[in-house]
């Protein structure tokens, strides 16, 4: 297997958001992918397998598999177009979040994220305790989003990150 480290959102080396991209001929076990992600110790390690005219893509953090990662998807498209299919301008990835399409435009890559509308959820004592301020609203989708009164409230917040 070949593994690349790509800095997404960067103009120079050692900037941006790094992701590992592992290009496989066929799938390896989820346990082995997890161990590789732990060893890489980056926010995400992407695993890519070509099947027909598209690529299958999975993402692992050191803590487990996740359903979507933008910067590791862009990094995977870069690796494919730079080292495997240099004439390809559109890379299609089949993922846990559905089909993701990355378009190469000269030296830039563009991707449209799937829409995941969060639903309102009730505020809990744990949320208020973790933020040390009472949010105005709460929403739950892939992530929990808490809305504060205004920008100043956000700037002055002193959350307890261990509780979060």
Automatic annotation (TrEMBL):
<protein>
    <submittedName>
        <fullName>PhzF family phenazine biosynthesis protein</fullName>
    </submittedName>
</protein>
<dbReference type="GO" id="GO:0005737">
    <property type="term" value="C:cytoplasm"/>
</dbReference>
<dbReference type="GO" id="GO:0016853">
    <property type="term" value="F:isomerase activity"/>
</dbReference>
<comment type="similarity">
    <text>Belongs to the PhzF family.</text>
</comment>
<dbReference type="InterPro" id="IPR003719">
    <property type="entry name" value="Phenazine_PhzF-like"/>
</dbReference>
<dbReference type="Pfam" id="PF02567">
    <property type="entry name" value="PhzC-PhzF"/>
</dbReference>
<keyword id="KW-0413">Isomerase</keyword>
């Amino acid at each position: 297997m070949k593994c690349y480290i790509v800095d997404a959102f960067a103009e120079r080396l050692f900037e941006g958001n790094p992701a590992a991209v592992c290009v496989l001929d066929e799938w390896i076990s989820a346990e082995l992918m997890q161990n590789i992600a732990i060893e890489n110790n980056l926010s995400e390690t992407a695993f890519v397998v070509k099947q027909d005219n598209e690529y299958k893509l999975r993402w692992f953090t050191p803590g487990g598999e996740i359903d979507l990662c933008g910067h590791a998807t862009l990094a995977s498209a870069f690796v494919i177009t730079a080292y495997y299919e240099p004439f390809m301008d559109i890379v299609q990835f089949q993922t846990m979040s559905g089909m993701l399409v990355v378009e190469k435009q000269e030296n830039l890559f563009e991707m449209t994220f799937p829409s995941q509308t969060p639903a309102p959820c009730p505020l809990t004592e744990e949320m208020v305790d973790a933020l040390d301020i009472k949010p105005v609203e709460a929403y739950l989708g892939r992530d929990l989003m808490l809305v504060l009164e205004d920008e100043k409230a956000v700037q002055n917040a002193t959350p307890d990150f261990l509780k979060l």
